[in-house]
Amino acid sequence: MPRTITKFFTPLLNLALAVLISVGLSGCVTTRLPIAVSSPWEAQDLETQANPLDVAFTDRNHGFLVGSNRMIQETDDAGSNWNPRSLDLPDEENFRLISIDFNGAEGWIAGQPGLLMHSTDAGQNWTRLFLDTKLPGEPYLITALSKNSAELATNVGAVYETHDGGGSWEAKVTDAAGAVRDLRRSEDGSYVSVSSLGNFYATWQPGDPVWQVHQRVSSQRLQSIGYQPDGNLWMLARGAQIRLNDEQDDLESWSKPIIPITNGYGYMDMAWDDEGSIWAGGGNGTLLVSQDGGDSWEIDPVGDRQPSNFTRIVIDADHAFVLGERGNLLRWVSNAV
Question: Could you say which of 43, 110, 118, 293 has the lowest number of CB atoms within 10 Å?
Answer without folding.
Answer: 293
